[in-house]
Amino acid sequence: MSPLEIISGLCNVTEELADIVQKQQTAIEQSKIEEAVKAELRQNIKSTDRKMDILEYNMRRYCDTDDIEKGERDERN
Q1: Distances (CA, A) of 47 to 22, 42, 52, 55
Q2: Which of 57, 62, 63, 66 could covalently link to 7 via disulfide, CB atoms 3.0 to 4.6 Å apart?
Q3: pLDDT tens for each residue of 22-54
């Protein structure tokens, strides 16, 4: 596994973890947790999600696995 494939895999796992957090937040919103705690968690998720989006957007141009596969094909030809 190349370093770029590892980075791409980490991006994918991070996105999966973000999906899990969003589902947990939905459960929290439906629970009897204090509104201030819900609001704080909501803001934390929103802020972190935004940071993740920016990082992934900037990283993908360096490590998109589609580019790796294309590069490998080009090398073979």
Answers
A1: 13, 9, 9, 13
A2: 63
A3: 999 999 989 988 999 989 999 998 998 888 888
18 exposed, middle or buried (CB, 10 Å; 0-12, 13-18, 19+)? middle
**Cα angle vertex 62, ends 67, 19, to 5°?**
95
Six token digits for residue 69: 């596969």
Could you tell me the pLDDT band of residue 74, with boundaries at 50, 70 and 90? low
CB atoms within 10 A of CB 73: 9
Q: How far apart are the first and last CA of the chain?
A: 21
